[in-house]
């Protein structure tokens, strides 16, 4: 029998994987066909990540994979083996909301909240790369997400607010050290 045949897994067979979830090493078993979104929720109990369309359209399942926003419904759990995965839970590690989450609350940028975890994760990644975006850029970034409640305007306002506050803080720190 060839090696290729030997390596074929049987239906229902589980594979152990280990990843770093929000800074903590976590392990679990999954089937080779299991989606990362399902593994995060059901295998690791991190249910902050939501699942909507399961085919990459709505953005609800967005997490960070090695620091970059990605749809967890478009990845297999086994592909996350050995990688760093960050979810919305990681934005409030000490049960204290981060600045992005606080801005969403201030601007009423969520209603039912189903889309919110994914949007927050996309915004967190985006603001690292584009710290001072225009409204148009924020709207373009949000076009990868579906929110059926807010009409997007308060979300845009929250993101621009965070960007402006971060810019002001960075400016103040620079002035301090000048
Ligand atoms: S559930 Fe992943 S994009 Fe909709
Ligand atoms: S707040 Fe309900 S879908 Fe966005």
Count of β-strands: 5
Structural class: alpha+beta
- Shape annotation: globular
Bound molecules: FE2/S2 (inorganic) cluster
Give the spatial strand order of the biggest sheet: 2-1-5-3-4
Number of helices: 6
How would a textbook summarize the main sheet? 5 strands, mixed
What is the mean predicted local confidence, pLDDT?
94
- Unreliable spans are 1-5
Beta-strand portion reads 5-15%
| Proportion of residues in helical segments | 25-40%
The domain tally reads 2
Distance between the termini: 71 Å
Our Rg estimate from Cα atoms comes to 19 Å
Task: Using the coordinates above, name the CATH class of the largest domain.
Answer: Alpha Beta
- Briefly note the CATH topology name of the largest domain: Ubiquitin-like (UB roll)
Order of helices and strands: HEEHEEEHHHH
**CATH level-two architecture of the largest domain:** Roll
Organism: Caballeronia fortuita
Domain 2Fe-2S ferredoxin-type: 15-91
Protein name: 2Fe-2S iron-sulfur cluster binding domain-containing protein
Keywords: 2Fe-2S, Iron, Iron-sulfur, Metal-binding, Oxidoreductase
Question: How would you characterize the overall build of this protein?
Answer:
The protein is α+β, with helices and mostly antiparallel strands. It folds into two domains: 8-90, Ubiquitin-like (UB roll) (Roll); 99-177, DNA polymerase, domain 1. It has helices at 3-7, 36-43, 99-106, 116-129, 135-142, 153-177; strands at residues 15-21, 24-30, 62-65, 68-71, 84-86. Helix 3 (99-106) packs across helix 6 (153-177) and helix 5 packs across helix 6 (153-177). The relative contact order is 0.13. One FE2/S2 (inorganic) cluster binds at residues 110-116, 147-150.
């Amino acid at each position: 029998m060839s090696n290729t045949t030997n390596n074929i897994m049987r239906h229902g067979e589980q594979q152990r994987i280990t990843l770093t979830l929000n800074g903590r090493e976590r392990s679990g078993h999954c089937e080779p066909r299991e989606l990362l979104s399902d593994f995060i929720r059901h295998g690791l109990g991190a249910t902050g990540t939501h699942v909507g369309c399961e085919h990459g359209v709505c953005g609800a399942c967005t997490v960070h994979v090695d620091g970059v926003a990605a749809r967890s419904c478009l990845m297999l759990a086994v592909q996350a083996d050995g990688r760093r995965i960050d979810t919305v839970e990681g934005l409030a590690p000490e049960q204290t909301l981060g600045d992005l989450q606080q801005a969403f609350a201030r601007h009423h940028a969520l209603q039912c909240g189903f889309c919110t975890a994914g949007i927050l994760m996309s915004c967190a990644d985006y603001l690292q790369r584009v710290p001072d975006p225009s409204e148009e850029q924020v709207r373009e970034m949000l076009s990868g997400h579906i929110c059926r409640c807010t009409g997007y305007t308060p979300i845009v306002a929250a993101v621009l607010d965070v960007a402006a506050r971060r810019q002001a803080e960075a400016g103040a720190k620079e002035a301090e050290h000048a």
